[in-house]
Design a protein that fits this description.
single chain, 2 domains, two-stranded antiparallel ribbon, 52% helix, 12% strand
Amino acid sequence: MKRLLLFAALLAWSGMASAVVYKWVDAQGKLQYGDRPPDGVHAEVVELLVAHNSTSRSAPASTQSAPTQTASAAKTAAPTMKDINDKNAIAQDVAQTRDKQCTEAQEHYKKLIEGRRMYKTGPNGERQFLSSEEIDTERLNAKQEVDSICNSTT
């Protein structure tokens, strides 16, 4: 019985040891892991139990095996830590702005759904109450805005 359990454990471990895991940053700026990264995304191989060289899946093979590159060209081709930090900061700013816009759109939609008598402010500051059809149109537009802002991936 012990031999069977040991054999099963070794078999499972060998399958995990040969698996390749990639990591990448998605459109929302969150770090993702998986066995297949999406197309067009810069993904790195995660080092597991055995030492793998980190390679980029999206980089063409000609740039990885070009021994004739000079040292200065290699420095300009490789992203520096400052570049990576700048990109991460930009991605975080975009994500925060998108979250804020999503929250505002959801609040506006909630007000339209919960409100009974809706009005718009006229050119002279007077209230112009909306008809049922206009309220429905406003609610539909607000729902579409929530969907487009909160569910967008770009």
